[in-house]
């Protein structure tokens, strides 16, 4: 990338939109005043980085993203501390994963350090949009779409890298609550050699049907591997952990599982606490056997949106497995409290996970210089 | 769908674009003067069908299609006969397959008969865009994208159904020519339980990497099944046929193979000609064994873009299998000549495959009535 392209042009909106009240917050429906954009062409590389008012995109109907799904995305959050500072949680890992996804989808890599700089500038500018209430945050959605106006099946020669922001409510309005999940038998999310370890639209499109077919009360489905339909992969759009006989087990990364930032943080925390944790193949049969033997102590999902999502009941056909009497287990609770404590700046951050966002004025001045 | 929604509003472009010369035609880069659009909302269903000037779409950056790939598409062609009539080839099957794809992707079904009516009206209006030269045609791309401005992973409540048209050159500029394909080992297009039998972006996004990694001179990759990596599924974005010891064999539809309209037409023609044809599991080993035994007589792909694409060489790691001395075989040639003959109205149409498009004036009058 050329040096001059590191200058982020900023075009402020004329008048800000009204911000939602704390009780109006849901997930991903309201967006802030500004967004970040950058274009790519084979000739110019990534160019024209800019922060502009949030507005519709004007895109040719033949653009590849509409036809061949060449796109990637990320999800992270900005949190407001009690001192009024905005901070991010391990954002480098998200941009690094975005480049991993880009590689699988034949999308040119982004400059990760520059993306982080752009994100901080955007968050600083729209900092007033970070909600203050307990458990609320500013959801961050970086994404790349292929925009070449061409119907051939080939990597696009043009792309847009965009970051949008959405103030979101607490995932659990009444605090952390166990969910019910069902083992999915008919549908498959992805398979080794597919796009499972990339964060790309097709994986999510493929998952919609399973959720639609799931019974009432099923919050998420548990995905088994696409080959043997035997080994546990993920739950819904989260990674999954099972505490069996004192050890916490999570499926090893195998090429079809997304490497979650929360997953990685959970593993680090457990090791730090000297709780035995294993990344390995884990079959559905092993989980059922552990339940029969009274050794399935806890189960929980881990992801950016919910942080930790305890699983109170696992449904497999006619079988209903209650886990920890349907209550949040001590490990899930401790992980949730610690992760959110670090994210909101209430607890010490021994791993250097938190990244402060500079104050709005300072960074806005830089932007327009 | 409400009765009044069957009225297609037409807004003509003020001045038509310049049409490409015959030697400027490539695939999918130039689009005609008009396009068809129709919107969907959960409240109104499919509504406001309209033909408008071809122009960029204005779409919210949080629209689902950009993030979760909820989209489907179709591909077909309009042909100009020597009498100057425009005609379509089995368009009902494309709209029926679109609804099959819609079902897998949790997209509300379209009214197939109405979609065909809209398509005919659009083609009639832009009929002057159908190129006249031998082997050229008007490529038709119907597609549906999810447009709800919401970042939750759930079926969208809003969609757009769009049809765009692109004049395209002959797929083989120097006539029908055998291609070289490579057996893909690392990447998988899709798997049973996935979205393989739906025509959705994610399948094509997943396929880009294999093509990028393929050696120079490899036109397409041959996909094996995602479970055992043993059985043949498709080649590139076409269905595939092998003539072994006098019988034509094609992989049976198994939930991960797209049901091609050309595939179906090939099977019908072969049966009509009393050429033995089998739809069944076909392993790579069987094809290699047949080649060793001198019984692999022909191989070819079948799809809308190329119609019939003879395979002259099959590459598997270090092994190079030459098929029919690298030349187009008699069955491939006969299928190509017959299918294109019917499509361009030069040959009798014993199966009622061809659908005439009414003349432009008549249908334009109806449109504005």
Automatic annotation (TrEMBL), chains A, B:
Q: Which pathway does the database say it acts in? A: Amino-acid biosynthesis; L-leucine biosynthesis; L-leucine from 3-methyl-2-oxobutanoate: step 4/4; Amino-acid biosynthesis; L-valine biosynthesis; L-valine from pyruvate: step 4/4; Amino-acid biosynthesis; L-isoleucine biosynthesis; L-isoleucine from 2-oxobutanoate: step 4/4
The record ties this protein, via InterPro entries, to: Aminotrans_IV, Aminotrans_IV_CS, Aminotransferase-like, B_amino_transII, BCAT-like_C, BCAT-like_N, BCAT_family
Alphabetized CDD domains for the sequence: BCAT_beta_family
Protein name as catalogued: Branched-chain-amino-acid aminotransferase
Q: Which family does it belong to?
A: Belongs to the class-IV pyridoxal-phosphate-dependent aminotransferase family.
Kind of enzyme, top EC level?
Answer: transferase
- Key word Amino-acid biosynthesis present: yes
Tell me the superkingdom of the source: Bacteria
BP term (GO), one: isoleucine biosynthetic process
Cofactor (UniProt): pyridoxal 5'-phosphate
Could you tell me what reaction this enzyme catalyses? L-leucine + 2-oxoglutarate = 4-methyl-2-oxopentanoate + L-glutamate; L-valine + 2-oxoglutarate = 3-methyl-2-oxobutanoate + L-glutamate; L-isoleucine + 2-oxoglutarate = (S)-3-methyl-2-oxopentanoate + L-glutamate
* Region called Disordered, residue ranges: 1-21
Name positions with the PTM N6-(pyridoxal phosphate)lysine.
Answer: 199
Recorded GO molecular functions are: L-isoleucine-2-oxoglutarate transaminase activity; L-leucine-2-oxoglutarate transaminase activity; L-valine-2-oxoglutarate transaminase activity
Show the PANTHER family listed in the entry.
BRANCHED-CHAIN-AMINO-ACID AMINOTRANSFERASE, SUBGROUP IIII AMINOTRANSFERASE
Task: For this UniProt record, give its keywords in alphabetical order, as a comma-separated list.
Answer: Amino-acid biosynthesis, Aminotransferase, Branched-chain amino acid biosynthesis, Pyridoxal phosphate, Transferase
Enzyme Commission number, as recorded: 2.6.1.42
**Upper taxonomic lineage:** Bacteria, Bacillati, Bacillota, Bacilli, Bacillales
Q: Does the keyword Nucleotidyltransferase apply?
A: no
């Amino acid at each position: 990338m050329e040096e001059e392209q590191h200058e982020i042009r900023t075009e402020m909106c004329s008048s800000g939109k009204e911000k939602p009240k704390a009780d109006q917050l849901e997930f991903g429906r309201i967006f802030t005043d500004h967004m970040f954009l950058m274009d790519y062409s084979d000739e110019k590389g990534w160019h024209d980085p800019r922060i502009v008012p949030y507005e519709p995109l004007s895109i040719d109907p033949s653009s590849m993203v509409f036809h061949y799904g060449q796109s990637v995305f990320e999800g992270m959050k900005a949190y407001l501390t009690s001192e009024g500072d905005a901070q991010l949680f391990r954002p480098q890992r998200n941009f690094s994963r975005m480049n991993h996804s880009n590689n699988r989808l034949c999308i040119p890599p982004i400059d990760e350090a520059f993306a982080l700089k752009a994100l901080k500038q955007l968050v600083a500018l729209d900092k007033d949009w970070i909600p203050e209430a307990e458990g609320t945050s500013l959801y961050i959605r970086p994404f790349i779409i292929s925009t070449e106006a061409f119907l051939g099946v080939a990597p696009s020669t043009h792309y847009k890298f965009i970051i949008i922001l959405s103030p979101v409510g607490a995932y659990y309005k009444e605090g952390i609550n166990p969910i019910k999940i069902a083992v999915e038998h008919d549908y498959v999310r992805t398979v080794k050699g597919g796009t499972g370890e990339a964060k790309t639209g097709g994986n999510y499109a493929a998952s919609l049907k399973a959720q639609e077919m799931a019974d009432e009360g099923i919050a998420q489905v548990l995905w088994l591997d696409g080959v043997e339909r035997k080994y546990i992969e993920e739950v819904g759009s989260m990674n999954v952990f099972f505490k069996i006989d004192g050890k916490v087990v999570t499926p090893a990364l195998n090429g079809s599982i997304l490497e979650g930032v929360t997953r990685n943080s959970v593993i680090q925390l457990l090791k730090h606490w000297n709780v035995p944790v294993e990344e390995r193949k884990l079959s559905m049969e092993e989980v059922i056997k552990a339940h029969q033997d009274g050794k399935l102590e806890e189960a929980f999902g881990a992801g950016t949106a919910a942080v930790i999502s305890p699983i109170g009941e696992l449904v497999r056909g006619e079988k209903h497995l209650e886990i920890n009497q349907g209550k949040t287990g001590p490990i899930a609770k401790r992980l949730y409290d610690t992760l959110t404590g670090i994210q909101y700046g209430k607890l010490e951050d021994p791993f250097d996970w938190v990244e402060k966002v500079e104050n709005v004025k300072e960074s806005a001045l830089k932007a327009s210089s």
